[in-house]
Amino acid sequence: MQLSGKISLLAFRARSYLTYLMRRTGAHGIHPPFVFDLYTRGLSEKRHFYAFDKIEELRQDLLQEKKTISVHDLGAGSVRLKKNPRRTIESIVRTSTKPASQARMIFRLAEMARPSCSLELGSNLGLTTAYLASAVSPSKVISIEGDPELANLAAENLQRLDLKNVEIVTANFDDVLPEVLHNHTIDFFFIDGNHTKDATLRYWNMIAPHLTPRSVVVFDDIHWSEGMEEAWNEIISDSRVRLSLDFYCMGVLFFRDGLTRQHFVLKMPL
Fold this sequence. Notes:
It is built from eleven helices and ten strands.
């Protein structure tokens, strides 16, 4: 990315985050009972699980790992990475995995959804996958990763955590997603890969016909770029979406019958 492009992206993110800060609300601004209970009792609850400790111990181990691998970015990665794909595992953990607070939110959302099968696009090193798999065990998690080395490391890390309910699929999302959707009834979707407007809308259009009233869809980095923000706004305007929650770092969609169509910008639960 050219210097001018980086400056433009940083300026956009600053404006976007300021807008979010001005619009966001906490529990006091939530009136529908379903959303209030979801936010105060589900997402904000301070329960701690043994699984959290095991996953975070693994994260600390990986932060000490100086081994380098070649990362093949299939999405909206940096020019620097494409010129020099060698990265240490430690640097991947620091810059490309979700922090514990956000991964635990995925855990809580999945635990409340109780899906029969979950789908993740973008395994990375498997840390967020582990949170998702721990929340829904013993139900199945399918995690698709386009980079073979990352997919192998994710599988190894999940094995270290003794999580047996995850299937890692190494493939380009576009190539395998239609088959996965055809062969499985998926209730929980976590979309964390290829952060471009076109790709995000393409994945949405693939999964939308398979949604049911009990489905939950989580999009990562909805304000990562102007294109991602445009994709998010287009998605929440879809009449199938009954409720959307914007936490800045991620957006959550619900499709329950009986919900009045509403969109909330909320503080990230601590």
